[in-house]
Design goal:
mainly beta; Double Stranded RNA Binding Domain; Porin; 8-stranded antiparallel β-barrel; 5-stranded mixed sheet
């Protein structure tokens, strides 16, 4: 512990500064006080001041005890650093020693405690809210969290819109064929609902022999999907059930006069996804992988001339999607 004198006042108070190694020394506290006290000020009575700074719960706890005219005043402050402790303590001491000095322009104190009655012999210790202290040194950046300014909570978004698009692959009801999926929908914190379109590109079915024959099969389909969403940080796990309706197109190959046919396509779907919405996307985008099983509601059969079987839609299929998703607002 060291003792410093405030040289600016005509009757300077004695100041005891107690802080861990690595903090500014007593001279820094003295210099900071001299910035705020009127050099012509005279307390008129002996003043003894004790200042203690200690780290506590990730912040710094500053206790300022001022003894003057037989009375003791204790003030406890909470700041973000030991340097901020020096500035906060200097402000409290400056006001106590020279009330006419006014509020320094670079320190914003906590709301003052109610003034005690004149006859009171002692002032009870006051535990104020963390006192925001702005930087005093030139060129030092102002840090709102360090100044005790509470961050504003983000507004919740109970309902948002989404758009998604990406490649897909399917195997089962048709031969392996690639696709392209797109959808729009609504997103709640714990659920989602989408209406989309998928184009399954032509899959070739060929049969050998003296005269090879077959067909090219393609699908245009609309899907309605929805279900709950589980969340864990930036990860989301959507569980989705859906219904798919569309048109199955078949174009025969290998004959003298090849046929073209279009029939109804229908399927029920059940799937699970994994979406990643990192903070870097600021909540406006996500990447999603969706695995889905589809069960055929209709199983049309295609035949070639002479009742030669070409293909019958299978009972079920497995699908995979990789989707890029935009979210708004």
């Amino acid at each position: 512990m060291s003792v410093a004198r405030v040289a600016a006042a005509a009757s300077p108070p004695a100041i005891a500064w107690d802080a861990p190694p690595g903090c500014p020394d007593a001279g820094a506290l003295t210099a900071e006080i001299s910035r705020h006290i009127d050099p012509a000020a005279d307390t008129g009575q002996p003043v003894t001041i004790r200042v203690q700074a200690r780290p506590a719960d990730g912040r710094w706890r500053v206790v300022v005890v001022i003894e003057a005219d037989g009375r003791t005043q204790e003030r406890t402050l909470a700041v973000e650093s030991c340097e901020a402790a020096v500035r906060a303590a200097a402000f409290v001491i400056a006001i106590a020693v020279d009330p006419a000095g006014g509020e320094p322009p670079d320190v914003v104190p906590a709301p003052p405690a109610p003034a005690p009655p004149p006859a009171a012999k002692a002032i009870d210790a006051v535990e104020p809210e963390p006192a925001p202290v702005t930087p005093a040194a030139a060129g030092e950046e102002f840090d709102p969290p360090a100044a005790g300014v509470a961050p504003q909570p983000r507004r919740s978004r109970p309902l948002r819109g989404l758009l998604q698009v990406g490649p897909a692959v399917q195997v089962g009801m048709l031969p392996v064929d690639p696709g392209l999926a797109a959808a729009g929908g609504l997103l709640w914190p714990r659920a989602r609902l989408t209406l989309g379109y998928t184009r399954w590109f032509a899959a070739q079915v060929r049969h050998g022999g003296e005269r090879p024959y077959g067909a090219d099969l393609a699908v245009h389909a609309a899907q309605l999907r929805g279900g709950p969403v589980l969340r864990a940080g930036p990860l989301e796990l959507p569980l989705q059930a859906g219904l798919e309706l569309g048109a199955l197109q078949a174009v025969g190959v290998g004959g003298d006069s090849n046929y073209r046919a279009t029939t109804l396509w229908g399927a029920a779907t059940l799937g699970v996804g994994l979406a990643w919405a990192p903070r870097a996307f600021r909540g406006f985008a996500a990447l999603m992988v969706l695995a889905e099983a589809a069960v055929a509601l209709r199983r049309p059969r295609f035949v070639f001339a002479g009742d030669l079987g070409v293909h019958q839609v299978g009972p079920a299929a497995f699908r995979g999607f990789f989707l890029v998703e935009a979210r708004f607002p």
